[in-house]
Amino acid sequence: MDNDTPDEVFAELKTKPLGGWGVAQIAVGTGLAVYAMWVGILQPGFRKVPLRLQVPYIPASKAQVNNVMTLLRGRKGGLVDLGSGDGRIVLEAHRQGFAPAVGYELNPWLVRLSHYHAWRAGHNGKVSYRREDLWKVDLTECKNVTVFLAPSVLSLLQEKLQAELPVDALVVAGRFPFPDWKPCRIEGQGVDRAWAYSMQAQRQTTTRKNDKLTVMDSDPDNELTKEK
């Protein structure tokens, strides 16, 4: 299952039991009718977010969290979780020594749920959850980044990450892989799988592609150049 399609993963998510606590968290995360009213009527600015960039909230499983942290083993410094949901990745990163551990989440209900999880675990004030648009977050100093986002978002996010992250950064994606990147490591199976990406490797790949295109454009015998 190395090449799971988004449809196959979504199908597995639908059949995967969430349990009572998972259902309760989704209820809190979505805010049910109250949140729907808040988004649709009282907060028109939120409606400007294109539908393809809106990500449904599904709690990360223990296996998913463990797989992400396994891929981050041996790394040091801070960690940023983009679209941090209920905050469990950030909380586990803090437990394993990442500091600062910061989550960025646009949904205010999920930010509150994240703070509750941190308080319940006795780590309130030791982790940070910020209600911010991930597209506006400055990532130039982030060396460890985690994401649990939809494929439509990942295809655009990879451009931001490649433009802003330092060369020694590591990006770990859970549930869905980046569409155009080659992972350096993979952990887990099926819907619990996680993919690690080296920014140095991605930049080298991009440079080689650009150099190849430059050579093709400058070659007078190239058929594509003649057509231009």
TrEMBL record:
PANTHER family named in the record: ADENINE NUCLEOTIDE TRANSLOCASE LYSINE N-METHYLTRANSFERASE, METHYLTRANSFERASE DOMAIN-CONTAINING PROTEIN
One GO term describing the cellular component: mitochondrion
Protein species of origin: Seriola lalandi dorsalis
Gene Ontology biological-process annotations: methylation; regulation of mitochondrial ATP synthesis coupled proton transport
Protein known as: Adenine nucleotide translocase lysine methyltransferase
Annotated GO MF terms: protein-lysine N-methyltransferase activity
Residues annotated as transmembrane: 20-42
Key words, A-Z: Membrane, Methyltransferase, S-adenosyl-L-methionine, Transferase, Transmembrane, Transmembrane helix
Family: Belongs to the ANT/ATPSC lysine N-methyltransferase family.
Annotated region described as Disordered, given as residue ranges: 206-228
